[in-house]
Amino acid sequence: MPATLSPDDLKSAVEAGVIDAAQAEKLRAMRATSVLAPADANEPLADEEHFRFLNGFNDVFLTIGVLLVAGALIFAATPQFSGSVLGVMTLAAAIFWLLSEILVRRLRAVLPGMALSILFVAFAATAIVIQLHATMGIESTSDPWAELAFWRYPSLLFSVPALAAAVAYYVRFRLPFALALIALTAYGVFRSALHAYGLTEGADTPFIEFASGLVILAVAMTYDARDLKRRTRLSDCAFWLHLVAAPLIVSPIIALIKQSTADSATTSIIVLMTVFALGLFALAIDRRALLVSSLLYFTFAVYHLLSGGTLETPGYNARFISTSLVMTLALVGAFVLVLGVFWHPLRQRLLPLVQNTSLARYLPPAIQ
Q1: Which domain holds residue 29?
Q2: Cα(294)–Cα(257) distance, rounded to whole angstroms?
Q3: How many domains does the chain contain in total?
Q4: 169 neighbors 178 (Cβ within 8 angstroms)
Q5: How far is Cα of residue 253 from the mean position of the Cα atoms in its chain?
Q6: Looking at the structure, do residues 163 and 98 belong to the same domain, yes or no?
């Protein structure tokens, strides 16, 4: 038996609930020590960042079908087509849940599951918001659609049902991506609750983002600590949490840089130092996802800081700003390329420096 099981077979068996992670590890050990099956050259490396995104092109095909169904339901909710927006939203949430039973729970399709989880959470929460506006006697001048501006101004009336829907989806389907939705909606609940009860002002928003990012990062590293070899779905769970945590941590740092620097040269230096520090941390915990997510936000923020969001900003020396912007992006890009090419050798040199710290138990071994 061990000689015929590939690493992907074992991972699929764990995700399907056929065996648990401990049993999978025993089977891997048997396979590695068997004289009939020497160690597989294709076995995932301990410090490689593997995550399952596609089972095949059929997942893309299925996702397109899901999105077309979603588009049809959105058009069906318009006043020209249907008089009951609540009914369409409720029906849509039910449809996406049933599709998840087939595509996610039975076929284990990851990309369609990601689309379905987002759609279910969005439609279910929207239905609840509309119903609450109808039953709570909210004045007619209040627009229920204003509650749905969640990503920019998270409201308590939307974020709470969205969080409940995300939790329900994860509990039922165990899709790692759903943890990202839980993290985002939980952040929305936390931020909007503090604002609703007058416990925070606008100036406190960076602190709230930073604290929330650190909490999500801590949860992600807890998942990593339970799967240092990155072989089970726990590693996938950590991956998505790292992607969510990074922008929340970086955003207040950017805000602080903007407030504390007066010229573009100083801004460039501080940005480069921040990227370097994040790169070292990502290298230590072996999570490129943390750095990638940070860099996507940094790229937009650096452009915004050094050019004011336009190519020619009145009141600034456009030539000097343009030079700073180009040099900063070039140096950050060069740093990323160096990390990408020399990731393993750099980890070999970095890990001995942190082996005696509290971070050590979260670090996968380096490849020799």
Answers
A1: 1-43
A2: 15
A3: 2
A4: yes
A5: 19
A6: yes
